[in-house]
Write a structure and sequence with these properties.
The chain has about 210 residues and is α+β, with helices and mostly antiparallel strands. Helix content is about 55%, strand content about 10%. It binds glutathione.
C-alpha cells in the first residue's frame, strides 16, 4: 500500500484540506509537523522551499497544496463522478484560493494590530465576504436544493474545501459569524462535520488557532 506523509507546520493552514481528504478516505498518513527550528534546517531541501509537501512512498516529494489535495481526492474517489462535477469542485477551490490571496491574507498580516484588523474585517464582511458566501449558497442550492453535498450525492473535495475554508474564516474573523442568516451554509458545515471520519479527526487533531 502507498505510504503518505504530509509535512507542514503545527497548524491547519495550507495543509488541512489535504489532511481532511485523507481522513475522509480513511487512508493512513504520517502527519509531520515541523517547529520553526526544524523548518530552518529543512527549508532548502524542499522543492519550492515552502510547505506543505506530500511525500509518497518515502521518495517523491510534491509541493503545492491544491495540487496535492486534488491528487489525493482523485486517488480516493472524492473528485466528483465526471468532469463537470470536477469543474464545480475546482470552481469552489479557486474561489477560496482567491478569497485567501485577495482578502484574508491582508487581515492575517495585521492580526496583532486590533484597530487596523477591525477596519479590514469590516470592509471584507460588508463586501467580498457577502459575495463569496452568496455564491457558495447558490452553488449548494443547485444540487439537491442544498440539502446534500456540493456535487452528486456524496462527499467530495468541494465539500471539504467549503468546510475548511469556512472554518478558517470563523477562526480569523473572531467576532463575526459567517453563518449568520445563511442556513444552507450552516447546515452544510454541520453535515460535513458530522461525517464520522471528519468528526473523529476534528475532535482529536492537534488544537491550533489556525
Ligand atoms: N502555493 C503554495 C504556498 C506555499 C507557502 O507559501 N507555504 C507557506 C506556509 S502556508 C510556507 O511554507 N511558509 C514558510 C516559508 O516560506 O519559509 C501552496 O499552496 O502550497
Amino acid at each position: 500500500m502507498v505510504q503518505y506523509k504530509i509535512t507542514y507546520f503545527d497548524s491547519r493552514g495550507g495543509a488541512e484540506l489535504c489532511r481532511l481528504v485523507l481522513k475522509a478516505a480513511k487512508v493512513d498518513f504520517v502527519d509531520e509537523r515541523l517547529t520553526g527550528e526544524e523548518w530552518a534546517k529543512r527549508k532548502e531541501g524542499m522543492p519550492l522551499q515552502a510547505l506543505p509537501v506530500l511525500t509518497i512512498d518515502g521518495s517523491q516529494v510534491i509541493c503545492q497544496s491544491a495540487a496535492i489535495a486534488r491528487y489525493l481526492a482523485k486517488e480516493n474517489g472524492l473528485m466528483g463522478a465526471n468532469n463537470l462535477e470536477a469543474l464545480r469542485i475546482d470552481e469552489v477551490m479557486e474561489m477560496f484560493s482567491e478569497m485567501v490571496q485577495r482578502e484574508l491574507i491582508k487581515i492575517y498580516m495585521v492580526k496583532d494590530n486590533e484597530e487596523e484588523r477591525n477596519k479590514l474585517v469590516k470592509t471584507f464582511v460588508e463586501g467580498p465576504m457577502k459575495k463569496y458566501l452568496t455564491f457558495l449558497e447558490m452553488r449548494l442550492k443547485e444540487n439537491k436544493d442544498g440539502k446534500g453535498f456540493l456535487v452528486g450525492d456524496k462527499l467530495s473535495l468541494g465539500d471539504l474545501a467549503i468546510y475548511d475554508g469556512l472554518s478558517l474564516l470563523t477562526a480569523l474573523l473572531v467576532n463575526v459569524d459567517p453563518f449568520e442568516g445563511r442556513s444552507l451554509l450552516k447546515e452544510h458545515q454541520s453535515r460535513v462535520g458530522s461525517v464520522p471520519e471528519i468528526a473523529e479527526w476534528v475532535s482529536t487533531r492537534p488544537k491550533t488557532k489556525f
